Amino acid sequence: MEEYLVLFKETIAEYLPKILMALAILIIGLIAIKIIVSTIKKILVKREVDVSLQKFLINLLGWSLKILLFVTVIAKLGVETTSFAAILAAAGLAIGLALQGSLANFAGGVLIMIFKPIKIGDFIEAQGQSGTVKEIEIFTTKLNTPDNKEIIIPNGALSNGNIVNYSTEATRRVDFTFGVGYDSDIKKTKEIIFEVINKHPLILKDPAAAVNLSELGDSSINFFTRVWVKKENYWAVKFDILEQTKEAFDAAGIEIPYPHAVHINKQAQT
Q1: Burial class (CB in 10 A: 0-12, 13-18, 19+), 52
Q2: Does pLDDT of 202 surpass 90?
Q3: pTM of the prediction?
Q4: Is the dihedral of CA 11, 13, 17, 19 positive or negative?
C-alpha cells in the first residue's frame, strides 16, 4: 500500500506542474485568441471589408488559432509533438475520408468568398429555397425566409448549383397577365391598365411600362403587362396593381372571366 502511495505522490509531483502549466496556457491562450479575433474584426470593419468575408475570415481564424492552442497544450503535457503530428495526420486522413462532404462544403465556402455570387443581405433562390442571406459560415450558408424561417444550405451544394440573386440589380420587372371577356373593348382595356400604372408612385417611368395583347385564350383575352420598379418595391407594386386593376375593371364594367359549372339534370321518362 505504501508503495502505491509513494508512486502516486511521485506521479503527482511529476505531472502536476505540467498540468497546471498546460491549464494556464489554455486559459491565457483562449483569452489571447479572443483579443486577437476581436482586434482583427475591428480592423476588417474599419477597412470596410465585405461583411460576408469578415465573418468567414473570423470563423476561419478562430478555429485555426484554437487548433494551434490545442497542439501547444498537448505538447506541454509531455506528449511528443512529432508522434502527435503523425497521429493527427493519420486521424486527419481518416476523418477526411469520412467527412468528404464537409470538406466539399468548406471548399464551397471558399469559392463563395472568392467569386462572391452572393453576400449578406441578398435575397436569393437556391437549392429549391428562397430567402435573405443571413450568414455565410465555413461550411453552411443561412437564409431567412420572408415568413422568418431559417434555412441552412451546405456551401458545397450552394456553390455548385444554380443561384438566382434578386438583389444584384437595382431594378426589377414585375409581370402581370390580365384576362378579360371577349366582349371587352381592347383599346379601352389597355387604357384602363395604363391609367392604373401611371397613377402608381413606385413604378418607374424608365424603362417604360408595356401592355400588350398576348393571347386569345379559351375564355378570355389576355393582356401581358410589364412594369419596372426598384427592387425593394417589387412586392408592394405587385399587390397594389393587382388590386387596383381589379377595382378599375369593376368600375368600368369589364368582366374578368372565371370558370362556370353547368349542372344538367336528366329526368327519367315515364
Answers
A1: buried
A2: yes
A3: 0.63
A4: positive
